[in-house]
Amino acid sequence: MRRILLSMLLMLLVVSCSYADVIELPPPNKTGGMPLYEAETLRHSTREFADVEITSQDLSDLLYVTAGVNRDSGLRVYPVARGVHDISVYVFDKNGVYKFDALKHSLELITGGDYRQATSKPAYAGKAAITFVYVQDLKKWEGEGAPEDRIEKWGFAHTGAMLQNAYLFAASKGWNAVVRGTFEEARIRRILKLNRKQNITLVHSIGPRP
Ligand SMILES: Cc1cc2nc3c(=O)[nH]c(=O)nc-3n(C[C@H](O)[C@H](O)[C@H](O)COP(=O)(O)O)c2cc1C
Q1: pLDDT at residue number 14
Q2: How far is the CA of 178 from the centre of ligand 1 (A)?
Q3: Tell me, what's the pLDDT at 2?
Q4: What is the DSSP track for the chain?
Q5: pLDDT digits (tens, 9 = 90+) for 86-115
Q6: CA-CA 20 to 30 A from 207: which of 3, 62, 75, 98?
Q7: Atom of ligand 1 at shortest distance to CA of 44?
């Protein structure tokens, strides 16, 4: 009897832990916003950020516009080579680090705590409300028969399409944004617990201006 009770308790623990690790996002807005031409005209990089949090609705909308699913087929707002979605968006905010699940439109908690500064050397973007770290997963290409010498380039092309989406969202909200190709790779890899098949492409800070 004791053993049954113990295993039931263990099962309960496992279930509640796995629920706690997934953060549901509100459904994203798919209409409205600033007209595209105006957002294009306002898009630019700026390196000053207010140390404020954004709402979960704004985060949901930002993630949808950057990397969301826009068709029943599971395809996204950005184009990909051979239908392979090899880039994951990791989200750093004041409260933790998360991985965006585009299909479920939710966040998986990687670790709690404020690690934004770790993505920011020099320190200018460490206060940004949100920093995205784009990570290419080479495992996604296994069995696809893609030419070896193209895979990394395609990953950067996918990242470029996504980050432009995020820049346009920032412009439309009157926020600042800056993408970075120079960052402390080893440090970020440790925080994200990346394996040898996962490589960081770019880092992107986005958020309200001071
Ligand atoms: C691939 C790439 C890497 C970049 N790396 C950095 C960087 O490490 N640090 C930085 O401050 N800006 C970086 N930028 C932002 C550029 O400096 C910026 O886009 C450029 O000055 C043009 O300004 P604009 O974005 O306002 O048009 C990078 C941009 C790209 C596309």
Answers
A1: 44
A2: 6
A3: 59
A4: -HHHHHHHHHHHHHHHHHHHTEEEPPPPP-S-SS-HHHHHHH--------S-PPPHHHHHHHHHHHH-B-STTS-BSS--GGG---EEEEEEETTEEEEEETTTTEEEEEEES--GGGG-SSGGGTT-SEEEEEEEEGGGGTTS---HHHHHHHHHHHHHHHHHHHHHHHHHHT-EEEEES---HHHHHHHHT--TTEEEEEEEEEE---
A5: 999 999 999 999 999 999 999 999 999 999
A6: 75
A7: 26
User: Closest Cα to atom 10, ligand 1: which residue?
Assistant: 180
Q: Per-residue confidence at 123, pLDDT binned at 50, 70, 90?
A: confident
Ligand 1 pocket check: which of 40, 45, 156, 168 to mutate, most ligand atoms within 8 Å of Cβ? 45
Of the residues 180, 182, 204, 209, which should be mutated to test ligand 1's pocket, given the most ligand atoms within 8 Å of the CB? Answer: 180
Question: What are the structural domains of the chain?
Answer: 22-207 (3.40.109.10)
Indicate whether this model's pTM tops 0.90: yes
Ligand 1 site: residues with CB under 6 angstroms? Answer: 44-45, 47, 178-182, 202
